[in-house]
Amino acid sequence: MHDRLTKEHSGPFSNGRSVFARVPLTQGRYCAIPSTFDPGKLGKFVFRMYSTLDMDLRELVFDKPKHPECCGFQGFAKPHIGAMQISIVRGTSLPPQDKDGAVDGYCIIYCEKKQLTTKVVRDTVNPEWNERVTFYLKKPDEDIVIEVWNSNMIKDEFVGQYTIPMSDRRSYKGGNVISRFELYGKGKESTELKQGFIWLKLFYTEKMDEV
Q1: How many domains does the chain have?
Q2: Range of 124's domain?
Q3: Can you tell me which residues the record assigns to a coiled coil (predicted)?
Q4: Burial class (CB in 10 A: 0-12, 13-18, 19+), 46
Q5: Is-contact 143 110, C-beta < 8 A?
């Protein structure tokens, strides 16, 4: 979605052949955009990034997914009908899980056949995730599930989940509206209310040419 994201770093323009910057970043997804001082100038460049941890560094080539193909032919596979943007802002008042009364919380998002996981925020019952994901949907009527988990050395613990009702998708307007949702159990306990809340910002659109 082409909207303004939070700027983590912006380096000064320089006439030198190289520009170096050391930027502390938390674990997450980032977009690095090299640019020239004057707009419209084209040229080749080399971009190097170093990190203390492994990175899944990829070139962003397309503004949106390519039209799906079936057996090498376009038009036979089901196209993407809409796009759903989910900002997982924070969790509040989560139930203490560890002996010290804290939570090492993270979220798993299930959408159609995709699964994405946020970073782990440690030692707090009020984790701030501030992560955003975008799903291109072939089945916009299918609900999206967000599970909250506590990270452990041996076995992670389920905290609660919230199901985003996609029947209400046209009401998800995005903007600066952050909504609080209650957590529930899963399976046979899907109607059981759990302790804690998750705060989300939701945006849905079917204008694929504008995504």
Answers
A1: 1
A2: 82-210
A3: none
A4: exposed
A5: no
Percent of the chain whose predicted confidence (pLDDT) is above 90: 51
For tokens 């203490």, the residue is 96
- Amino acid found at 77: A
Query: What is the DSSP track for 95-115?
Result: PP-STTS---EEEEEEETTEE
Number of H helices and E strands in the chain, helices first, is 0, 10
How far is residue 109's CA from residue 88's CA, in Å, rounded to a whole number?
10
**Non-local CB neighbours of 125 within 8 Å, separated by 6+ positions:** 91, 92, 93, 94, 95, 96, 101, 102, 103, 196
Rounded to whole angstroms, the Cα distance separating 97 from 196 reads 12
What the block records as the tokens of 188 is 């046979």
Residue type, 37: F
Query: Residue with structure tokens 């899944």?
Result: 56
Mean pLDDT of the chain: 86
**C-beta separation of 96 from 127 below 8 A:** no
Residues sharing a CB contact under 8 Å with residue 6, sequence separation 6 or more, in sequence order: 130
pLDDT tens, 97-156? 878 888 999 999 999 999 999 999 999 999 999 999 999 999 999 999 999 999 998 899
Give a yes or no: residue 32 inside a domain. Answer: no
Q: Rounded to whole angstroms, how far apart are CA atoms 103 and 121?
A: 8
Supply the pLDDT for residue 204.
94
Percent of the chain with pLDDT over 70: 88
- CATH number of residue 167's parent domain: 2.60.40.150
